[in-house]
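Q: What does the assembled structure look like for these inputs?
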Amino acid sequence: MATGHLAHIRRAPAGGRLRLGFVGGGRGGLVGDWHASGARLSNRWDIVAGALSSDPERAALSAQDWAIAPDRAYGDWRDMARAEAARADGIDAVVVCTPNHTHHPIAAGFLDAGIDVICDKPMTNSVEEAQDLRTRTGGSGPTLLLTYPYVHHAMVRQARAMVAAGEIGELRQIRIEYLQDGSMHAAGPDDKGQLWRRDPATAGRSSAVADIGTHAYHMLHHVTGREVEALRAEFHTCGAPQPLEDTAFVSLRLTGGVPVLMHISQAAPGQFCGFRFHIWGSAGGLSWDQEYPEDLRHTPLDGPERIVRRGQGAGIVPEAAQLVHLPRGHGEALTDAWANLYAALAIAIGQRRAGQTADLEGLCLSGADEGLQGVRFVHACADSHARGGAWTDLGPSGW
Amino acid sequence: MATGHLAHIRRAPAGGRLRLGFVGGGRGGLVGDWHASGARLSNRWDIVAGALSSDPERAALSAQDWAIAPDRAYGDWRDMARAEAARADGIDAVVVCTPNHTHHPIAAGFLDAGIDVICDKPMTNSVEEAQDLRTRTGGSGPTLLLTYPYVHHAMVRQARAMVAAGEIGELRQIRIEYLQDGSMHAAGPDDKGQLWRRDPATAGRSSAVADIGTHAYHMLHHVTGREVEALRAEFHTCGAPQPLEDTAFVSLRLTGGVPVLMHISQAAPGQFCGFRFHIWGSAGGLSWDQEYPEDLRHTPLDGPERIVRRGQGAGIVPEAAQLVHLPRGHGEALTDAWANLYAALAIAIGQRRAGQTADLEGLCLSGADEGLQGVRFVHACADSHARGGAWTDLGPSGW
Amino acid sequence: MATGHLAHIRRAPAGGRLRLGFVGGGRGGLVGDWHASGARLSNRWDIVAGALSSDPERAALSAQDWAIAPDRAYGDWRDMARAEAARADGIDAVVVCTPNHTHHPIAAGFLDAGIDVICDKPMTNSVEEAQDLRTRTGGSGPTLLLTYPYVHHAMVRQARAMVAAGEIGELRQIRIEYLQDGSMHAAGPDDKGQLWRRDPATAGRSSAVADIGTHAYHMLHHVTGREVEALRAEFHTCGAPQPLEDTAFVSLRLTGGVPVLMHISQAAPGQFCGFRFHIWGSAGGLSWDQEYPEDLRHTPLDGPERIVRRGQGAGIVPEAAQLVHLPRGHGEALTDAWANLYAALAIAIGQRRAGQTADLEGLCLSGADEGLQGVRFVHACADSHARGGAWTDLGPSGW
Amino acid sequence: MATGHLAHIRRAPAGGRLRLGFVGGGRGGLVGDWHASGARLSNRWDIVAGALSSDPERAALSAQDWAIAPDRAYGDWRDMARAEAARADGIDAVVVCTPNHTHHPIAAGFLDAGIDVICDKPMTNSVEEAQDLRTRTGGSGPTLLLTYPYVHHAMVRQARAMVAAGEIGELRQIRIEYLQDGSMHAAGPDDKGQLWRRDPATAGRSSAVADIGTHAYHMLHHVTGREVEALRAEFHTCGAPQPLEDTAFVSLRLTGGVPVLMHISQAAPGQFCGFRFHIWGSAGGLSWDQEYPEDLRHTPLDGPERIVRRGQGAGIVPEAAQLVHLPRGHGEALTDAWANLYAALAIAIGQRRAGQTADLEGLCLSGADEGLQGVRFVHACADSHARGGAWTDLGPSGW
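A:
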C-alpha cells in the first residue's frame, strides 16, 4: 500500500479550533451543508452558532442537525451578530450563505459587529454594494473572505504551480467551461434555490454567469495569475423559459493578449458540474475536469500525454502536496476541496486575530477586492450582451 | 463471438468496380493515401491512372506504389484528362487532392473533358471560382462531389438520425470544436503541406478555418439539418508566427435561432484530431469525439447516460447499421469512414452514369452547391473578423 | 444547478453526537486520519479521547492535532479503557486501528470494560483470536464492528440493490481485483506501516491478502449476498523481496456455483487503489471502480451501456440515494464513504445503547461473525497455496 | 495539422501486387471479409480466385461481391487448388478461413499443390493434424502462415519493443483477458459461425479457448518473448447451455517464472472485443486495450502515467512507426491491423518466392511451429481442466 499522510493543514492549531457561525444554510438549502462539511472535515472549526433559516421551526431543527446548542440557534441574524459579539466565547467568524441580494446587509452587519465574514460568491449583486463592503474591510478590522472552493483542489494547485514555473511555456490560449443542466426544468414552487437565482429581483442582472460563471472567472485568474482586460458576451436562454440567461458564450482577453473562450451553461442535458479548463502554452497544455479532479492532464508539445495524479511524489509539486490527505488512488473530491478552503480560512483568520497580516495570496484566498472584481465581471458580461457583444472592459482596476 | 457482417455497401457492383484516377496525392503528400486507402477498402474502385505529382520522378514512383500501369502515370493533369477521356476504358472519375488554389483549374479541366470530379475541401479559395464550378455542373453532365469523410462515420450517421427523430427534442444549443496542434511549429522547408496552407498566395484568406473549420461547418449542417444564418468570428495566431490565423472562436446562429459555439485551432498542444460536438436539445444531448468514433454518448434529460456503440442491434438505427462492417468492439476508425465515403461516391457516380439522378441527400454527399456554401463560410469568418467580430451573413442563399 | 441535499444520515441525532476514542491512529500512521476524517464528516461523533501512539511525545502531539483535551490523551490503552469506563461522559465507542496482531488484546480489553469496539480489518491474525472475540460479543453486552469502508460508497449500494432486484438476472460469473503498487519498494526503516505488514511475526500468514484481499472478499459477499463455498489460491511475491506474498491469484466458488476470479496485488506499478469488480448475470453486467466511484456501469444484454451516476433521480435506488450528499457531478469520494460508514456505526451503536438490536444488515455493517469469516478467508487462501492450489473450504460455517 | 505518412509497407512492390485466393469467407460468414479487407487495404494483394462457399449459388454471388472473375469462382476447393496450380497467373497464396475442423485437409491440399497457405487460427483441432501440417512445410517448399491480427496493431508492436528494451524492467506479473458476450445467447439455426464453434464434432475439445484464448496465448508470447512453461485451467459455461466451455480461468507460468492470470470468456455481457493486457515489471507497467488500440498506457514506477499514442514522434519506436499510416489522432483500428498483417504476409511470401528465407521473426508472423504450439495450448487447457485444474505442461517443445 502506498504511504500517504494527512496534510498538516488538517491538524487543529495548538490553541484549539476556531468557532464558526452560519447565517443561512439550514434545511431546504443546498450549499449550507457543503460549507459545514468542509468546516468539519478541516478539523479547524467548531460550528457553534447559527441563524440557519428565516423560518423559526426550520432554524431550530437545522441547529439540532448540526448539534448547535439551543441558546445559540438564532431566529434573526441581527440578534446573532449582537449576541455573539458580546460573548466571551463568541464566534470567530460567520459564514454568509444566503441568497445573493442579502449578502450585503448581512456581511455589513457582522463586520460592523467586529466579526470576520466568510461570504459565498458572488459577493453582492451590485457593484456599489461590493464597493461598500470593500470600504468596510482592510486595516486591522475584521475582514471578508469569499468562498471559491474549486481552486482548493490539489490538482488545480498543481496546474497553477506548473503554469507559474513555465512548464507549458508562454500562455497562448485557454478554453474554460462550466456546464450544468439544472435550468432545463422550470423551478418548482418549493425549489427556493432556483426561484431566487432566476428572479431579477433577487439575482440581479444575471443568473448563470453570476452563479457559476464567477467560478470560471476566478479560476482563470487563479491558474494563470493574469487579469481579464476585456470581454465580449452573448447571453442565451436555452432551457426552461426565464427572464435571465441560463447560457453565455464569452470571449475574453487576458493581460498579455491571451485569448480565452468561455462557455457557461445551466442548460446542457447530461452535464452536471462540468467545470473544465484547457490551458495551452508554447511548450504544452494542461487540462482539468472538476468531475474527475484527481487527474491533471499534461500534454508536453512533442511528448506523450502525462496524467499527473494527486498523491505524494510522481511529479506533485509542494503547493499541491500540502493539500494531499489520502494516498494516490484513494479518491479525494469536492468536500476535500471545501475542507482545504476552510482550513485556509481558519489559518488566515487566525493570522488576523493574532495581529498578523493574513497571507491571502499564499493561502489562495480572495478578499473584498477580488469579490468586487467578480461582481464587475458579471456586470461586464451583462453590459456586453446588452451592447450586442461589444468588447467591454472590467472596470477601473484589476485585481 | 458477436455476429457481424460486411455491410452491403462494400460489395462490388454487379458490373464490376469503377475506375478511378488521381491528380495529386503522390509521395510526400499527406491526404492522397487517405483517399486511396478509402477507395481500396470500399471494394468499389480500381485506381488505374494518376498525375500524382508535379515532379516527374516522384510521379513515376508514386504510380508504382499504387500499382498504376506506366502508360497511365501522367506527368501533367491536362495530358491525363485528354488521354483518359479518349480511352474506352478511361477513368470514371478523378480525385483532385492538390493544394486548394489549384482545385478550380483542375476540376474545371476534367469537367470539361466529361469526367466526374471528386474534390477535396474547400472546393476553391474564392467565392467566384466556386460559383464558376457550380455553373459547370448540374443537368446531365459530369458532376463534382466534395470529400467530407467525418460524416461517414457510422456513429455520426446515428447522431443525425437521432436528432431527426426528435430523440433529444428541440435543438437548444451546440458546441463544436476541431482542435489540433500542428501550427505550434514553424513549417520546415520540406513540409509542403504546411507551407501552402499558411501562405495567403495559396491558402487565400484563411488557414485553419479553411483547412478544418470547413469540416466543422459541414458537420453542423449534416447532423442538425439546419443552415447557418449568421456568424461572428475572431481570428488568432497562437502557434508559430504566420500571416494567417491558426485559431478561431466562432459564434453561429442556425435556422430557428439555435446558438452554436465553435472552437477551431491548430495551436492546441496535445490535441491531434480533436473534432468533437455536443448537441443539446430539450430532451437530452448527444456527444461524439472523432478520436473515439465508436461511441456516441446520449444523455437523456433525467435518465442515465447511454453509450450507444457502433455495431448491430442495441439501439443502432438502420442509417448507421448500413455502415457497420465489423462487430461491436472490433474497431472501425478513420479509414473505414473514408471507405464509406468512397462507396457512396461510387454509388452516386454509378447512378449518374446510368442516367439516373444521384441521390446525394440519401448518400450524405455534397455537390458543388454545398461546396460553394463551404467557401462562403470561410469568407464570412474572415469578413467578420475583419469587421471586429460583427455578425455576418453567409451569402445570398443557403444550402 | 441540480438540486441536491445532505442525506439525513449526516444529521446529528436529537440527543447529540456520540463520543469516540481511538487506540492508534496518531502521527506517523496511515489509516488513523481516515477513520477520524470519516467520523468528523459524519457529523455524528466527537473525538474526545485517545491513546494515539505508543510513543508518549507522539501521543501528546497527535492528541493536540485532533483537539483532544490533555487529560484524555492517554499513553496506554489499558489506562484509557479504565478511565473512560469510569467517566460519566466516557466514550461511547473506541476505534482500534493498530497493527493487526494487537487487535485481539485491545479489543478484548475494551469489550471487558464495557465499551463498544470499532475494529479495523482483518479482525485478528488467527482464527482462534477471532473466535475468542466473537464469544465476547453478542447478547446485550458491548459489540464489535468492523470497518469495511468501500461498501459504503453510494454506487456500491446501488450495485447491491440492482443485483438483489434481479436487474442483471441470475449471477453467472464475477471478476474482482484489488491492485496497488506499494510492495514494489522495500520498506524503509521509518515506514512502520509497511514493516509490520510484511513481517510474519506481526502480519501472520499473509500480507496482501490480509491487507486488501479481505476487502475484496467482503465486497463479494456484500454485493452478491452470496457466501464463498471454497477457493483456490496461488501466492506470489512480485515486488521487493519479502517473506510473505504481495500478490495472489484466487479462484472462488460462491453459493449456487458462481465462479469468481480474484486478483490481489500490491506489486502492480501504476495501480494505486485499483479496487474493481465486474458482475455478470444472465441479463446484463455491472462494473465499478473505486478510483472513479461515482459511476456504476450497467451493461444490459442487448442494450447500450448505461452509466448510472451518483445523484438523486436518473435511476438511483433508495438504498443508494440515502448516501447521496452532493448533487450529481459534485464529486464524493473515499472520505465520504468513510463518513457513511461512521454514520452507520453511530446509528448501530446508538441503537444498542438504547437497548435495541442494532440493524447491522440494514446498515451494511459487519460484526464479529463476519470478522471471523474474514480471518478464515485469509487462512483458506494461505492453506490452499500451501497445498499447491487445492480447493479449500472456508470453515465450518458461513456468515 | 500534424504531418503523417503512409508507411512504406502499404506501397505495392515494384513487381506488382501478389495474387490471392480464398477458401471460405463468402456471404454468411464472419471473418472472410476481415481477411479480404485487410488484403485490399494492404495494397499488396489482388484477390483473384475463390471457393467462397460450399453452397454454389452463394459461392457465385460472393465472387461477384469481391469482383472475382467467374472462371476463377470455384465450387470446390480441390478444383481450385488444381486449376490455380496449373495457371501461369495462378494465385500466389490461398487464405483458409473455413471452420477449424476443415483446416487440415484444405491446407494440406494446397500445400501439396505447391501453393502457400494463410490459415486462420487455431491451425487445427488436433495436435496430430497440426504436427502433420508442420511436417508438410519447411525447406524450400510452400509455407503455412497463421493469421493473428492483433499483434499487428502499431501499439502492440510498441509494447513489445518497450518490453524488449527493458523500459519496464524485469517482468514480474501479467494479466491478460479476452472477454466477449456472444455466448449469452443460444445460437440460432442460421448462425453457422456459432453452431460449429459450439459443437464438439467441429470445434474439438474447446470453444472459447480455441476461438479467442489462442489470441491471448499468442499475444503473451509476442509481447514478452517468453514461452509458456505450464498452466492450470478451469472451464466454465456461464452463458447459454452448450457442451463446451464459454469461459476459462487460466493461470500460467512463463519462462523465468513470471506468473500470468488469464481470463477468457464469451459470456460477459457488455464485453465485445475486450482483449486487454497489463504487463508489470520491476520498473513500470504497460497496458493495452484492443477496443481503444491507439493508446498504450505506460506507468513508470514513481512517475506519472504516460499515454503513448500511435503516431510519429512523441516516444514512438521504429518498430511501431513503420505501422503508422495516419497521423496521431486520425484513428486506425482493426482493419488497419489486418492490413498490416496482410502486408507482412505479402512480404514474407514474396521473400520465399524469391528464394530467400522469409523473415518471420522480423515480420511478427507465425508459421506452422507456432501453429502447433497454439493447438497444444488449447489441449493443455482442456487437459488441466479435466484433471481438476492441475499444472500441465504444453508439450515436448516450446516455440
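The longest strand of chain B covers residues 171-179.
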